[in-house]
User: Fold this.
Amino acid sequence: MDDLKEYRNQLVILEQKAQEDFDKTVLSLSSGALGVSFAFLKDVIGSAPVSVWLLTIAWGSWALSSTSVLVSYYMSHKALRTAIEQVDANKIRQEKPGRWFDKITGSLNFLGLILFVAGLVFMIWFVKLNLEG
Assistant:
């Protein structure tokens, strides 16, 4: 039984690490994509790009993706703090650990991923149109 409990504890630690790595990766990719796209626009496209609305949507998607991940960090902190309070009050088995903060954290992480991919799609579309013409 102790082996199973130790294994479970390891799984919890690994899950937390994986989520932290995911958040950092999405944040880094979104921020990096913004920077690279600025350089691309200046050096490759020049001063007369076409379909600028695609670029604007890509930038907006990446900015919102970064914001989503940053807010999820805060919500994760609140979920953990709430779970600690639930343990202290001996309510952890009667209530969802972290309450609604946990659900918001997961939703924001997924939203960050979706927005990053959307930004990528719009940027590829923008680049394709500008390199063709």
